[in-house]
């Protein structure tokens, strides 16, 4: 049925007043607040310590070199965000989505990230010292030379992750963690109790670096190449 000119004019006014949600641009100029929309915004080299970004839309946001220490990222979506050399030290990130982020040399030290998702993330040389990551997922993540000293990794998923030269030796595994097909070239596992770990195979252990105190799952044995020599940066 054809619409009269007056009806078309009224419809245009309604669309202007209430644009479709998908067409609304991110509010890059807004102050940090829960559930805000900073998608694809540039927030580089800023001081945003302690910001409350719970539930925020941070997809593709550029946080390079930004200080986000102590911030609240609970349930926030940071998929494909850039966090190169950013600091999230001591942040709350329970249930946050960090999938496919770029975070070379970023600091996640002491982050509280139970259930967080880091699947497919670029995390080379990232610092996770003291992080609480029970139930977190690092599936298919790039974790070359990442540091997990004193991190809690109970139930953490490293399936298909690249753990080349990552340091897990000071981490706490208070139960099973998953290593299905993880690449563990020179991964430091000295002193770890991996007896409850799942997915580990002898070929991975042959590549990794353990010592006499490393506990392995039943059926796996320490290779004659252990312990590995100390590595120099």
Describe this structure in words.
It is a single chain. The chain is low in regular secondary structure and 233 residues long. It has two helices and no strands. The protein has helices at residues 5-17, 202-207. The radius of gyration is 22 Å and the shape is elongated.
Q: What overall geometry do the principal axes of the alpha carbons give?
A: elongated
Total beta strand runs: 0
* Mean residue pLDDT: 91
Proportion of residues in extended strands: under 5%
Using only CA atoms, what is the Rg?
Answer: 22 Å
Q: Which spans of ≥5 residues are poorly predicted at pLDDT below 50? A: 11-15, 18-23
Derived structural class: little secondary structure
C-alpha end-to-end distance = 74 Å
Helical coverage, percent range: under 10%
- Number of helical elements: 2
In short:
By secondary structure, the chain is mostly loops. It has helices at residues 5-17, 202-207.
